[in-house]
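User: I'll paste a sequence; please echo it back and then give the predicted structure.

Assistant: Echoing your sequence first, then the prediction.
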Amino acid sequence: MTSYLLRGVSVLGAEPTDLLIRDGVIASGPATGADIIDAAGLVALPGLVDLHTHLREPGREDAETVETGSRAAALGGYTAVFAMANTSPVADTAGVVEQVWRLGREAGLVDVQPIGAVTVGLAGKQLAELGAMATSAAGVRIFSDDGHCVADPRLMRRALEYVKAFDGIIAQHAEEPRLTEGAQMHEGEVSTRLGLTGWPAVAEEAIIARDVLLAEHVGSRLHICHVSTAGSVEVLRQAKARGVRVTAEVTPHHLLLTDELAASYDPVYKVNPPLRTAKDVHALREALVEGVIDIVATDHAPHAVEDKECEWAYARPGMVGLETALPVVLSVLGERWDLIAERMSRTPARIAGLTGHGTDLAVGDPANLTLVDPSARRVVDPSELASRSRNTPYAGTTLPGRIVATFLRGEPTVLDGKAVK
């Protein structure tokens, strides 16, 4: 295994130092024989961890594969991603989650951890094989029907009770389906002006309120996916004050973009939950800094061309985000490196119980890290993305920061901004 000396690097924005990587860990002592990387002006962060990624394989390899998604993740500074269950077939059995896990190991670019479905076929009728997935080689600990809400409260309670036995987590896509039937965008002034059916904020907030009560009653762990409204923030704040075991995520696009973009009728801005108002964006930013929202998760949602380049009403919701997540967060939070590491690496690793990731890059820690050039600016070009899909909302946008290198257990997956393999 090659050793590397990162010369003059700034760890989390601190004074420049030399960082030695040897035998897959952060090491001390002489750097004899190490390959030297000039890291002057670069910031070292613990490798990013994404708890919400869609890799589409098996079933929709035309949109993404585990390998292409892993490459996009590495180029975005990630060393671990959690793959959602809405594949075809659905990841609702030990066999499917193990397939995804093995594909991730074969790609070897990031640690791919499957998320298992809560219900069979994401249909919301019958619990999936939660125990079998938990005891499989993939060791699943997070379960979600993302893309679909577990709307039945009795079934949601049973799921929370089941995973409590092994300290698992139910990650809820909070959307009351009876309030969003036919919805095309956020319900508000813009949807009224455009004549599009609205997706009301209360459809999200009502499910979060219900589920924090269920989690509190059961004493189990609940995670809320892609929080998007100011009202949801208040529900979470109150639940956390009571000691409910709830965590929450926000996407980069919900921290930056608003429903005004729907006026273009460009389906690239169609996403679930929808882009909300500037007031919601402000509340989400404040909640992320405060810690009411625990983490940033991409909800990377690649789609084939025919599923996005069509009329708004027929377009699939979702945006790719792995390669632009850190630059977007930098544009929102500024160079608050420790806070970024907390929200994009340490806390997601801790929520998932993922050992070896989200460390402080101290001597003896696994060398899972990324190097960022904060002075760089990048104009997003969809044709240059490693993802198999091109549905980015940031095409032509100039974003701060450039991922220069990513290391997974001491081996580079990205060098000089390019994937190693």
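The CA atoms of residues 3 and 37 lie 11 Å apart. The chain has a mean pLDDT of 97.
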